[in-house]
UniProtKB/TrEMBL annotation, chain A:
This is Cytochrome bc1 complex Rieske iron-sulfur subunit. It is a multi-pass membrane protein. SUPFAM superfamilies: ISP domain (SSF50022). Residues 252-342 form the Rieske domain. Keywords: 2Fe-2S, Cell membrane, Disulfide bond, Electron transport, Iron, Iron-sulfur, Membrane, Metal-binding, Oxidoreductase, Respiratory chain, Transmembrane, Transmembrane helix, Transport. Belongs to the Rieske iron-sulfur protein family. One of its GO terms (molecular function) is oxidoreductase activity, acting on paired donors, with incorporation or reduction of molecular oxygen. Coiled coil: none annotated. It comes from Streptomyces boncukensis.
From TrEMBL, chain B:
It is a multi-pass membrane protein. The chain crosses the membrane at residues 55-74, 120-139, 151-171, 216-241, 262-288, 337-362, 382-401, 421-442. It is an enzyme of class 7 (translocase). It comes from the Bacteria. It comes from Streptomyces boncukensis. This is Cytochrome bc1 complex cytochrome b subunit.
Amino acid sequence: MSETGSHENVSDDDNLPERPDSQADAQGAVEKKADNPFADPGLPPHEHRIQDIDERAAKRSERTVALMFALSMLATIGFIASYVAIDIDEIIYVWPLGHISALNFALGLTLGVALFLIGAGAVHWARTLMSDVEMVDERHQVAAEPVVEEKVKADFLQGAKESGFGRRKLIRNTMFGAVALVPLSGVVLLRDTGPMPGDKLAKTLWRKGKLLVNENTNQPLRPEDIAVGSLTFARPEGLEHDDENFNNEIAKAALMIVRLEPGDIKDKKELDWSHEGIVAYSKICTHVGCPVSLYEQQTHHVLCPCHQSTFDLADGARVLFGPAGHPLPQLKISVNKEGYLQALGDFEEPVGPAYWERPR
Amino acid sequence: MSTTTDTPASDSKRKAPAGERVADWADGRLGIYSLAKANMRKIFPDHWSFMLGEVALYSFIIIILTGVYLTMFFHPSMNEVEYHGSYVPMQGVQMSEAYKSTLDISFDVRGGLLVRQIHHWAALIFLAAMLVHMMRVFFTGAFRKPREVNWVFGFLLLLLGMFTGLTGYSLPDDLLSGTGVRFMDGAILSMPIVGTYVSMFLFGGEFPGHDMVARFYSFHVLLLPGLMLGLLAAHLILVFYHKHTQFAGPGRTNKNVVGMPLLPVYMAKAGGFFFLVFGVIAAISALFTVNPIWNLGPYRPEEVSTNAQPDWYMGFPEGLVRAMPGWEVSVWGGHTLVLGVMIPVMILMPLVLAAIALYPFIEAWVTGDKREHHIADRPRNAPTRTGFGAAWISWYFVLLIGGGNDLWATHFHLSINAVTWFVRIGFFVVPVLVFVATRRICLGLQRRDREKVLHGRETGTIKRLPHGEFIEVHEPLDQEQLHTLTAHDQYEPVEIGPETDENGVERKVTRGQKLRSRLSKGYFGDSGQIPKPSAEEYKELTSGHGHH
């Protein structure tokens, strides 16, 4: 950035426009006025407001401001009255807002009016009654004067010299080392904020023989419970809503079950892992982990409502559209001796969003 | 108080009023008079656009006031409880204490719902005000020396504000915000090598775990607002120290500031404006419900609702993620590089933000200008900068459309695929088109200013000359207008100069110099600006007393 110096043709100053300094002060402007039609004519004269010359207008403004402040007081009293008088459960119909909480409506409006009128009064006061004669402040350069700059730099060098900072390199270097190392303690303390990932993301509760429990009825599913074109959500047998780790487990184990016509299934592996056209897929989107849940029974497509990734359930849950990077994992299922649907093992690949350690 | 002191001032019989005595007391200990000398009658220039930053400041204060109130009722805990409060539809539902206490604030604390609504509305307005304020500073060039550092402070406030908002709306542990955090976890997992570790360490184990709300709570109420308060104080101190920029005009130069004094005018106007902003936000909160968590239900990782949207300021990363193709590649023997999530979240989102953060330094390098600038530019007089700003805004809006592609599809009966493809292409094309169009519009406006200066204002009066010709009467501008329209600086493009120096020796021209020269030509060459009229041109045209 600083490669341009004055010895180069690319000079930092060549391309700057000239700025006549005379514009800065009024005297110069007057002098130049004759030959420069664009010169700064200086501040225009102050124009009086009606309130400046007519005392009755000023009185009117005063009354307006006082009225606003007085109304604000009334609104505050209204706020307190609403707080005391209106029941918190009361619902009223207000067109066009619909059915809303009466208390929230009354408190919000009275508070809003009380605050707004203080502001409006203050602004009206400033605009009509306080002096509107424009005033001028001079600016001063931010950078210090050369004398100050030299003094500061000399002081610094003197201080640095007295510390021996530059001369005693051993002290300097060990100090840098110590100060650089000490934050490591803080970093180390962060270690126990969570466990190591291990294979936690790759394993779910599904095991061989686990029944598929309907999320709505809490009953194990039989093949005859699942009609063609329906969408059923299931969780593994044994996982209950009040379990300590329910959320963590369901976040991986949630299952989406549909029944297709076996002839419609295009993917060979999908057909092998299905039972009479019933296929079980992970409900967790492979993009960033939202539950996929919008099913179109005619096309066998499922859509994730978060980022609109679309999967084809008749073709190995292949990604048809959207930002997902790989198909939804399928769970191998069959029917046990009692006629209930069961898993034949865990998912063969991690469910949910992809990550670095995920095999691909 | 009643005992007389032995200072000379007390010799007089008159006793100073109580307020003055308190001030004297404080001055002896804090030196407040020296502070007030420079600031009590400090001059602030007036322009409507200068209040945008005030909206941001006041909504931040409102957020802090209401936020402190909310902490008295909110339980940042993910312990599961069964709901038995007064909201009937949720009776018996299992939920976290965080969600339950948010329901209690909404239905059992009188005024609790209002404070929650004000808190959320003020946050939405805070972020919007910061963005618009930043655009005002950008388009008027108010980020130039000496204000570059304050620009960066402001940018950091915007960035931290986004994450304070995100951690804040995630606290109630409702279905919508939980889905948002799930997305965040998916984005974290996409980080190469460290993703799974960061995820485990942030959530205290697998998502969602039991620690998320408590951790986000400490980020949201302590860490992030603490940083923001420090930055805000620095931002305001610098505003005072640099003195505010002003637009060019008669008597307004780069070396002065013209306006009204802090006491009393701006004390009343700005103080009053705080109440105006607060009043409007309170009224909005009474009329329009934001984030009705009671409709959404508690978070469950296997449930979701349609139309899932983040708060608006998180819409642009959402759009990036939705539009990105789902690229996943295998690297280093079977590891997965999740480009489809990593590129938008880890590369493009910082890029969109960094483009705006670094701009002042890029422009300063191109112009090579080391002078202080206190006169705000009119956007038309910096066509290339204005073009870049407009292009950035269009970029942002394309991504907002992408973030709500489902809503665009359902509301306007469009195909979601078509909307997504529009965003994919628009991401590259729209900013370019907007840049070109904006620059041309600016140049057109510069030409019009030039016409106005040289030939006067079109009066609309048509005059018939003796020989039958019709002309429109042009009224010459007065000197105040002439000065205002010609007060801006115009740079010359940087020239690299000949390849060889005067002795025929090849000169070394670095790539940086070449780039700078090309950028400078684009900014300030013939296609980048219309030369402003010179006094000579003006005199030549007016001295003849002729009309053109």
